[in-house]
Specification:
The chain is α/β, with parallel strands linked by helices and 1006 residues long. It contains 33 helices and 32 strands. The strands form 8 sheets. Strands 5-4-21-20-19-6-7-18 form an 8-stranded mixed β-sheet. A 6-stranded mixed barrel has the order 27-31-28-30-29-32. Strands 10-9-8-16-17 form a 5-stranded parallel β-sheet, with helices on both faces. A hairpin with a 6-residue loop joins strand 24 and strand 25. The protein binds iron/sulfur cluster.
Length: 1006
């Protein structure tokens, strides 16, 4: 590889690009003529007379036309890489090159095996990854910097030089920082684990500028808020090979056969190991097909189903009493008058050995004596203090109901959490559960019994539960099942939540690379979007008041911050890279109409023209996944492996690291020219010095080495060197980039931010620090906490998990169908949505799946063009009749790009924004050790479900789309001539829109 920092001249780049595409076209030509030199027609005639080979292994004739297939396996060189798309797969691939071009990819298949008792980890991969090579030279590639010349989204672009693009951006950034509006600069990029160097590239610059780093995991509704609420932790999961160790698995809203393709083998093979697999899906999904039992509850009724199952476990005495006493808040006493936990500081005569007795909780033993609960926050120094233990030296009662003499209020009535929980569960008798969920009275009870009675039971929890407004209640109710049965902290147990590739094993190295100043302006993207898209103005008064209170109390940060005069500026500059914010935004209509116009400059760093790129001001072309150095990690396995460049970045594109480094250099240059003085940060004890921003960008801040992280590979090595997982303290062993380029390597240790160690010979399984080591859980009580005595939880009746109906934004009478936007089989989010190969495996255009009964009632037939609409907007798509789907749901698999719809709306045009107050809190209210805002760990989640629509047939059911619109859905499926025909090449009025961008990309200059 050559260093792309040195800018080639344009002609060389164009030649390079032409060579790549001509080479690929040349392959097609050779295919048509045939290696034999015969015409295709001659060859086809010859093939019809093919001699049957009876014994192909014993004797096989040489036939020259078959060389075509043999040549597919020829290559000149290969490189190891993977895909950065938040698929959670993190699969290592070999990428083959021939004549300097990417030729094809193949699953690497060399993950070292560490456990002979579980299936071989090899190979890993999916059908999308298997055709990423198509993207490397695709028409969708952005090959040179573009500046928009028309309105945003209009599709009018001008090719500009790197210097022009970077200068324009740098001038805007310098102006913004000089005006002390640095917190109006936003950086949005998701999921570091999928490519931490690329994540850090822009985050590092934004951090040096004093800008705002956006959360993503909560925004995408991937975060299960029930986990920080109950377990004090974002998530921690077993790697997928541990599924094989379970006796019983419930796949709850997790369509593993579609969304976890590289790992589905463990789910399938567990069946041969005797594991019973139950699927809980509203539709008869592709995973339900492979389960022993399928339960199809009403959409959004997961909480009631889980609580009904919990009731069975409790009523029938199938719970793990020891686990509940030691590991949970069930024995803790709660005051009946206030609903608050009884605190040790309140109890007359109770001996308390703790610095903060008001944060110590109380239990009763079998003799009726009161005790302080070991591990309470009041006797710990912060959330993660492991110097105290939760181990009990007395036997607490679970079922306690008694008066306690308090210092301030005299005798007060108290009841244990256990009894409060039993009261709550009493609401979920089989009849009620059946009414709410539609699941049979016996069915859910039998599954609950089976789950409780096996030795090792596990729940695989998917996004199907997280998309609802009351997702936190759903999470907590499902978590309750593994807690009640003591299925935590052992192999083959647990609640494994796999939604998004959130686990960055090498956490500390990544963190130090991404945020070198250590002073980070993180913002919950859901709140930022909600506020700046003007949705607050249409919010019910109670919710709006709670949002304001959470911001005023600094429970949730909102940027730009409020100024001394009480004003709050609008955001003004936004960088997006590795993500498709504009396409994926809930409240899409408000984002487009209210938020987007506030931004003076939107810069998208992208290798393809997606919806965010199309709606940006400047698009900077970045390297594809086969053209750069980076790392890849996931919670599905405990390996780390790399991206390495198989070829140079196409055209003028550069790697993310190069782009932001060169932007830093340009900002520094502009600042030096203007003599810009350092700016005092209004929040942190630091100065923002634009005259040193590039030098600071490339400096290794830990070893204080100038230029130490100037290159991508050095940045990747920085992460490996400064993370305990790859470079454990006090060990001779260390993982280097060379090591992982040779072969994926299992991480050496789990750092102190994980909840178990990595043990040789067995899959990683979480929660052992608490369940086996008896360290306090990182919660207020030091235990798994199902009772939350925060004022807002009490006010809203959510102190315990409980089933609640969703808030109503659209009346069922107006919009009778629920609207659901699950993950697709043929794309990873919006990546591959525009891939010809993947489009050919489905309908090739946005499609809504309807139950036959719903379709018939509306006179809709398979293939009809229909309008899906609600009070927000409407989109036109094709109808697919889906007998596996439940009546009453319109299922629109996400996430098609805007340019694939007529009028350039999209699946999110129908989705409003919600804000759940309980997800804005700090807990305890005064100090927040248990719940406090931390990007992606605790903050309000976006909501995709709880949306209603109606569907109607368009006109006579035939498509109203023009040829051009059809082409828009798959621009790369047609050649340039067909594109021109469809558009009317001479028609000036058609020279706008996404197709022109496609033509720009094909044809070069505007
Ligand atoms: S897209 Fe993801 S799951 Fe598919 S092969 Fe690539 S890394 Fe694996």
């Amino acid at each position: 590889m050559t260093d792309q920092t040195d800018v080639d001249d344009d002609s060389t780049r164009d030649e390079n690009r032409l060579v790549r595409r001509d080479f690929l076209k040349g392959v097609g030509t050779a295919t048509a003529v045939g290696a034999s030199g015969l015409s295709l027609a001659d060859e086809l005639a010859e093939m019809t007379n093919l001699q049957v080979v009876d014994d192909p292994i014993g004797s096989y004739p040489y036939r020259d036309w078959e060389d075509l297939y043999r040549e597919e396996w020829d290559w000149d060189d290969k490189a190891r890489s993977t895909h950065s798309v938040n698929c959670t797969g993190s699969c290592s691939w070999q990428v083959y090159t021939r004549n300097g071009q990417v030729w094809r990819e193949e699953q690497a298949g060399d993950y070292p095996r560490f456990d002979e008792t579980t299936p071989d980890p090899n190979p890993r991969g999916c059908q999308k990854g298997a055709c990423f090579s198509d993207y490397v030279n695709a028409d969708q590639r952005v090959t040179h910097p573009l500046r928009r010349t028309g309105e945003r989204g209009e599709g009018k672009w001008k090719r500009v030089s790197w210097d022009e693009a970077l200068t324009e951006i740098a001038e805007e950034v310098v102006d913004t920082v000089q005006a002390e509006e640095y917190d109006a600069i936003s950086g949005f990029t998701p999921i570091p684990a999928m490519s931490p160097v690329s994540f850090a590239s822009g985050s590092r610059l934004v951090n040096l500028l004093g800008g705002v780093s956006h959360s993503f995991y909560d925004w995408y509704s991937d975060l299960p808020p029930g986990q920080p609420i109950t377990w004090g932790t974002q998530t921690d999961n077993a790697e997928s090979s541990d599924w094989y160790n379970a006796d019983y698995i419930i796949a709850w809203g997790s369509n593993v056969n579609v969304t976890r393709i590289p790992d589905a083998k463990y789910f399938l093979e567990a069946g041969y190991n005797g594991t019973k697999r139950v699927g809980i899906f509203t539709d008869y999904s592709q995973t339900a097909v492979h389960c022993d039992e399928w339960i199809g509850p009403e959409p959004g009724s997961d909480t009631a189903l889980a609580l009904g199952m919990a009731r069975t476990i409790v009523d029938e005495g199938l719970y793990d009493e020891e686990h509940l006493k030691e590991q949970t808040d069930m024995p803790l006493l709660v005051r009946e008058d206030t609903g608050k936990f009884l605190r040790a500081s309140e109890v007359a005569g109770l001996d308390v050995d703790a610095d903060r007795p008001e944060k110590v909780f109380v239990m009763q033993d079998a003799e009726g004596n009161l005790h302080t609960a070991p591990g309470s926050l009041g006797e710990r120094d912060g959330q993660h203090d492991h110097s105290v233990s939760i181990e009990l030296d007395f036997d607490p009662d679970l079922a306690v109901e008694r008066d306690v003499e308090t210092i301030a209020d005299g005798p007060v009535s108290t009841r244990s959490v256990w009894l409060n929980l039993r009261d709550e569960l009493a609401e979920y008798d089989p009849e009620t559960v059946n009414e709410i969920t539609g699941v049979g009275r016996q069915t859910h009870q039998e599954v609950a019994r089976e789950f409780a009675e096996v030795e090792r039971a596990k729940i695989i929890h998917g996004k199907g539960v997280n998309d609802w407004y009351h997702n936190d209640l759903g999470n907590r109710a499902i978590q309750l099942l593994v807690t009640l049965t003591g299925n935590l902290g052992r192999q083959g147990t647990g609640l494994d939540h796999y939604v998004g590739q959130e686990k960055i094993w090498t956490y500390k190295g990544w963190q130090q690379l991404s945020f070198p100043t250590g002073s980070v302006r993180g913002v919950p993207t859901t709140l930022w979007t909600y506020y700046h898209a003007g949705i607050m103005e249409n919010t019910d008064p109670d919710t709006a008041a709670k949002i304001r209170e959470a911001v005023e109390k600094d429970w949730m940060p909102l940027y730009p911050s409020e100024r001394d005069d009480g004003s709050r500026p609008d955001p003004s500059v936004m960088f997006v890279w590795r993500g498709n914010y504009f396409n994926q935004a809930k409240g899409n209509v408000a984002v487009e109409e209210e938020l987007w116009p506030k931004l003076d400059l939107v810069v998208d760093v992208n290798f393809r023209m997606d919806s965010t790129a199309l709606n940006s001001d400047i698009v900077l072309p970045t390297a594809s996944h086969y053209e750069k150095h980076d790392l890849s990690e996931t919670d599905m396995h405990s390996y780390v492996h790399p991206f390495t460049p198989a070829v140079e970045p196409l055209g003028e594109s550069k790697t993310d690291w190069q782009i932001f480094r060169e932007l830093a250099a340009k900002i520094q240059e502009v600042a030096e020219d203007r003599g810009v003085e350092p700016v005092e940060d209004r929040k942190f004890d630091r100065e923002i010095d634009l005259q040193s921003v590039h030098d600071d960008y490339v400096r290794d801040w830990i070893d204080d080495e100038e230029g130490g992280v100037a290159e991508d590979r050095a940045a990747a090595e920085f992460i490996l060197e400064h993370s305990e997982e790859s470079n454990p303290e006090g060990s001779d062993e260390q993982l280097t980039f060379d090591d992982i380029e040779e072969q994926p390597r299992r991480l050496l240790e789990a750092g102190d931010h994980w909840t178990s160690d990595i043990e040789e010979g067995e899959p990683y399984t979480p929660w052992q620090d608490y369940v086996q080591e008896k360290n306090p859980w990182p919660t207020f009580t030091g235990r798994q906490q199902y009772y939350i005595d925060h004022d807002w939880f009490l006010e809203l009746g959510e102190q315990l998990p409980t089933h609640k109906d969703a808030p109503v934004l659209q009346e069922k009478s107006d919009y009778p169908l629920g609207y659901n936007t699950p993950h697709s089989r043929w794309s990873i989010h919006s990546t591959w949505r525009d891939s010809s190969k993947m489009l050919r495996l489905q309908r090739g255009e946005p499609t809504v799946y309807l139950n036959p009964q719903d379709a018939e009632e509306r006179g809709i037939e398979d293939g009809d063009t229909v309008r899906v609409y609600n009070d927000l907007d409407s989109v036109e798509v094709m109808a697919k009749i889906y007998p596996s789907g439940e009546p009453g749901t319109a299922r629109h698999f996400f996430s098609w790009e805007r340019f694939q719809y007529p009028d350039r709306k999209n699946f999110n045009s129908l989705v409003p924004m919600y804000m759940k107050p309980t997800q804005l809190v700090q807990y305890p209210e005064d100090t927040g050790e248990h719940l406090h805002f931390f990007p992606n760990y605790w903050g309000p989640t976006g909501v995709n479900s709880d949306v209603r629509v109606e569907v109607e047939k368009v006109a006579d059911g035939t498509s109203t789309r023009t040829a051009a619109e059809v082409v828009q859905r798959d621009p790369s499926s047609l050649g340039e001539d067909a594109l021109d025909d469809a558009l009317g090449a001479d028609d000036e009025s058609s020279a706008s829109g996404p197709l022109d961008q496609v033509r720009d990309l094909i044809g070069g200059d505007n």
